What does this fold into?
Amino acid sequence: MDQSQFKKGILYATIGSLWWGVLGTIFFKYVSMMGALEVTLHRLIWTSLILLLTTIIFKKIKVFKSIIKQKKKLLILLVTGVLIFLNWGTWIYAISINKIIDASYGYFIFPILNVFLGYVFLKEKLNFKRKISILIVIVSSVYLLFNFESFPIVGFLVAFFWSFYNLLRKKVNVDTDVGLLIESLFILPIALIVCYFIFKSGNNDFSFQQPYNILLLILGGFMTVIPLFLFIKGLEKTTMAASGLIFFVTPTSQFLLGFFYYNEPFSINKFISFILIWIAVFIYLKDLYESN
It folds into this structure.
């Protein structure tokens, strides 16, 4: 692999992960004052429009047309569209109620849960280290379950939706950005209808009398698409081990923001659970590095 291209890939992927972890968290935490549902709906609406433009600009219309002709792929993308919307909604809701640390827990366990789902549904092989990392995640989860006041339900929902999303996207095997466009277009009509009823009820923050709010909600689309493109660009130029390591920049950033910047409560039970998760992540990354 060309070292200069590899370094560029590391840079792109790291910026994308930091964008998601730091800028994305701060931005969506700020705009969540408008309500998690409306923010999520507008995130989907403006992401759809931006991806439609990028699909035209980067001349991927042929790719788009070829996908929509395949009924099986469309059905899977419909399901993944629902999953990504639920993932976004759960995450935005989590940060709006000061549960950034809990949400980060979900993204820490996601890659390991992904390995487990690959074993169950795709018959992928598990070596000893990956079995150990999965076992530690289970122990951590059971420990929190017995200490229910510390159980990060939003984190588990984030991990659940995101893991099954990735599992199905492996099966459909389409361009990340074009696939996300089709997923968004499936949910778009529902999002527009719900926005209409929110507007009709007078509970909307998207109002021409409040241009600042409009700008923030539109920016939600850019805050989604830009890091996505950076991370995809990075994946194209790096190894699986490198990209796997860089992924954890996002939940680490979220955890640090939640703990140090937003001063979220962090009980001893959560601390013990996170220690277990970090051990599992270390074992997983060591195995990923040695395998690649």
